[in-house]
Amino acid sequence: METILTINNLTKKFGYLTAVKNLSFTINKGNVYGILGPNGSGKSTTLGIVLNVVNKTQGDFHWFDGNISTHNALKQVGAIIERPNFYPYMTAYQNLKLVCKIKGVHQSKINEKLAVVGLLDRKDHKFRTYSLGMKQRLAIASALLNDPEILILDEPTNGLDPQGIHQIRQIIKDIAANGTTILLASHLLDEVEKVCTHVVVLRKGEKLYAGRVDEMINSHGFFELKAENHQALLNALESHSNIGNLKVEGELITAFLNDPMSASEFNKFMFEKGICLSHLVKRKESLEEQFLQLTDNQ
Amino acid sequence: MLRLLQIEFEKLRYSKASIILISTYFILLALIALFAMIKFDIGPIKFHFAELGMFNFPYIWHFNTFVAGLLKFFLLLVIVSMVSNEYSNKTLKQNLIDGLSKKEFILSKFYMVIAFSLVSTLFVFIVSLILGYIYSSYTEPSIVFSDLEYLLAFFIKLVGFFSFGLFLGVLVKRSAFAVATMVVLFFIEFISYAIVSGYNRGTELSDKIYQFAPFKSLWNLIDEPGSRLSAVQAMAHQVGEDLSYDYAVHWYEIAIVLAWTSIFILLSYLLLKKRDL
């Protein structure tokens, strides 16, 4: 598979603080990646390093096949980190024209990309008159100008109102649907869960996990169960070899699986034991639950 | 190089404050012509600048580049804000992310410094040429186009001064503070020079040392032209003072300023390279 970004043993120290510790991972073409981690876990620092604005302390990284200088590689990358930064006294169109000059892209792309983010009718207004949501959308348009190989987004919905968040998410989904590789840093897990296929989980600058979202923790899922005869259900569960931990919250019993087992198989087993279930749901852990489990374990 | 200049030009042309400062600067430069109109006529004292011979070729090159050099402060503000605004708007970060290298960033600013200096020099050349042809007593081409080294000195002086401003803009990141820093540095140099020369009265020691200092080296490029006027010379002669200075532009004066220019630009680059944004 074609690699876009390779990071090897990257370390960044700010004085005594180690913001990124010996981090390695690879970004392949065509996937949607999420970088997860609580605030201050080194997400933005890592992105800053690969985007040429933060100096690394140790380790190395390279874009594409490694035969291209970082600043030239960045011309094929679209990135937004933190707040949108543009010249306040220039209009949206003038700002994008400048970006075109820097990236070496033809100006004919400007209107097309402004249309993608729905700002075409405001293109001749000055940047400083924009709302935060509009600024963020302009930043996305700017990042898309060069039809990038990879789109990097750092907390793209931070500080937006629900409507703005929804708009940005929709735009990201549309871009992902076109096959563009995306790297999305966020501490909002449902955001990552909705769009990402792969995740890198960071905590205090260290990598906890990198890989597919659905393989993040070794889990076969769990059942949520209710029955008239509560005690009989508990006894039956304890006797079954596939069932590991049990969690009881009032009427609701959560049974975690040690080995794979389908809901119908389980239902049949219960029926043989003479227990009639009034509630049966098989689920996998949400990303949030997986994330908490992962960060708590270590 | 053209690409970098274009990028800088795009950034500047929409900034109202910069446009106003730049226009003010060029209007003031053009107003040098007004010196020619100054006439005092108070009873016995008759005084007309143009008749003092200050617009005579080739002296006009010296006089006009000296006066124009005093106006460079306006463009300094443009240069400093051009750099520090990139920090305060965080657009420097965005420029780098968009694929400009740190080296290209500094270079684009430096090219702008050169462009400003070149345009100013050209402007002064044209204004002086016109003024000279109106007021000068001699208009033979061999005289008109002599002493042109003052224009070269003027150009170098601007490049050196603006590079200093560029460096302070990168160092301090805030326009007002950068300009204040420059003023403070100026006074430090000026006062220490006064002290050193006070202790070494009668020798040239202080000048020998301070010709290497940034402000003094800029000042030395174009010597003060007033005492060179024949009228002033004559007056001085009557009171028994000899004012025969060395007015020429020397190669080593240019070399010192060029050295400072490279130091400022190199330091700006190293500073930017080392910084996390």
Provide a brief overview of the structure.
The complex is a heterodimer of chains A (298) and B (277). With 298 residues, chain A is of the alpha/beta class. Chain A has helices at residues 43-50, 70-73, 92-103, 109-116, 132-144, 162-177, 189-195, 230-239, 263-272, 287-297, and strands at residues 3-14, 17-28, 32-36, 58-63, 77-81, 150-154, 181-186, 198-203, 206-212, 222-227, 243-249, 252-257, 277-283.
- Which regions of chain A are unreliable across 5 or more consecutive residues at pLDDT < 50? none
> How many domains of chain B, as an integer?
1
How many DSSP E strands of chain A?
13
Order of adjacent strands in the largest pleated sheet of chain A: 5-6-7-3-8-9
Q: Looking at the chains present, what oligomeric state does this protein adopt?
A: heterodimer
Shape summary of chain A: elongated
From the 3D structure, determine the CATH topology of the largest domain in chain A.
Rossmann fold
Q: What do the pLDDT scores of chain A average to?
A: 87
Q: Can you write the helix and strand succession of chain A as a string? A: EEEHEHEHHHEHEHEEEHEEHEH
Unreliable sequence segments of chain B: none
Task: Write up this protein.
The complex is a heterodimer of chains A (298) and B (277). Chain A has 298 residues and is an alpha/beta fold. Chain A contains ten helices and 13 strands. Chain A folds into two domains: 3-88 and 139-215, P-loop containing nucleotide triphosphate hydrolases (Rossmann fold); 222-297, 2-Layer Sandwich (Alpha-Beta Plaits), CATH 3.30.70. In chain A, the strands form three sheets. Chain A has a six-stranded mixed β-sheet, sandwiched between helices. In chain A, strands 11-12-10-13 form a four-stranded antiparallel β-sheet, with helices on one face. In chain A, strands 2-1-4 form a three-stranded antiparallel β-sheet, with helices on one face. In chain A, strand 6 (150-154), helix 6 and strand 7 (181-186) form a beta-alpha-beta unit. Chain A is elongated and about 75 Å long. The model of chain A has no long low-confidence stretch (mean pLDDT 87). The model of chain B has no long low-confidence stretch (mean pLDDT 87). In chain B, strands 1-2 form a two-stranded antiparallel sheet. Chain B starts with a helix and ends with a helix. The longest helix of chain B has 34 residues, at 102-135. By secondary structure, chain B is mainly α. Chain B has one domain. The A-B interface holds A 14, 48, 51-55, 69-75, 77, 79, 81, 83, 85-91, 94, 97-99, 101-104, 142 and B 3, 6-7, 10-11, 14-16, 89-91, 93-102, 104, 273-277.
